[in-house]
From TrEMBL:
GO biological process, one term: folic acid-containing compound metabolic process
Alphabetized UniProt keyword annotations: Lyase
InterPro entries: FolB_dom, GTP-CH-I_C/QueF
Name this protein carries in UniProt: Dihydroneopterin aldolase
Length: 105
């Protein structure tokens, strides 16, 4: 059975290098897509992503993307594709900035 999920979650966490980013939670938007030859539980994965961001308080978006992709593949061995986009919509006035990581396995 092939499974394809698409998730979009918004929450607040500590993320960033700057002093003010390390002190106050900021809103982030995470968009996640994955394909696998095994069942993917979108509710479980959504919660895992959110908990990971809150627990590890990443210093860069790129660091967070790499962590999520590597650990997702470790957990879901039959995953064939993953794409994650993380944005910080309020960090720069009049802009929504972020980063993307896409991998085929």
């Amino acid at each position: 059975m092939q499974s394809y999920i698409k998730i979009k979650i918004t929450f607040k966490c500590i993320i960033g290098l700057l002093d003010f980013e390390r002190k106050k939670k900021q809103k982030i938007i995470v968009k996640f897509r994955a394909k696998s030859d095994e069942f993917l539980d979108y509710a479980e994965i959504s919660e895992w992503i959110k908990k990971s961001y809150k627990k590890y308080q990443f210093k860069t978006i790129e660091e967070s993307l790499e962590f999520i992709v590597v650990n997702f593949k470790d957990k879901y061995k039959k995953a064939t594709y993953v794409k994650i986009v993380t944005c910080k919509p309020r960090i720069i006035k009049h802009a929504k900035v972020g980063a993307i990581l896409e991998k085929f396995f």
